[in-house]
Design brief:
The chain is mainly α. Helices cover 67% and strands 9% of the residues.
């Protein structure tokens, strides 16, 4: 009879343990994408992001076609800059485009190598380099454009935020 009580006691304890483990509230953080629409919240579009989107969308490759050059000229005409400032902007955009293309090519090569080795690619490093490139380009324009050219440029970027949408990851439970 003692063995039977021990067996029942052990069964009861085991049942309690299993029950308590199954009642543990597992809270997992799940990434969720939040889209910020600049039409509704232009103030929530970071300046660095707005500049980057502009630089990427307006810069053209060194061997650009006539059509690409015409499209870029049309885009830049909306800034209403003096010719000297427009030339500075064109040179700065060309420099940005080359450095950005190099950055992307180098990152893509590093991803291929990392995956072949079975390691995680360094996307954070690439993002830091990308942001540094954007900041260096902004700094170049600030030091090279006339004050009127800089005012036109900054005003244009701020107004363009209302046409931008960005996705941002948010952690939810």
């Amino acid at each position: 009879m003692g063995t039977m009580r021990l067996t029942h006691l052990l069964a009861f304890i085991l049942t309690c343990l299993v029950s308590s483990f199954s009642q543990v509230d597992h809270q997992h953080l799940m990434p969720q994408t939040v889209v910020i629409d600049g039409r509704d919240h232009p103030d929530q579009i970071p300046d660095a992001t707005a500049y980057r989107l502009f630089f990427v969308s307006v810069s053209i490759p060194q061997n650009a076609t006539t059509s690409q050059k015409a499209h870029q000229a049309e885009q830049l005409s909306r800034l209403h800059m003096a010719d000297g400032d427009r030339q500075v902007l064109l040179k700065t955009l060309a420099d940005f485009q080359q450095k950005y293309a190099d950055l992307i090519n180098n990152y893509n090569s590093s991803v291929t190598i990392a995956l072949a080795r079975g390691i995680e690619p360094d996307s954070d490093g690439m993002l830091r380099e990308r942001e540094a490139l954007v900041q260096a380009t902004i700094d170049e324009l600030k030091s090279s454009l006339t004050s009127n050219g800089l005012i036109s440029f900054v005003s244009f970027i701020q107004s363009e935020k209302s046409h931008m949408k960005i996705a941002r990851a948010a952690l939810t439970q």
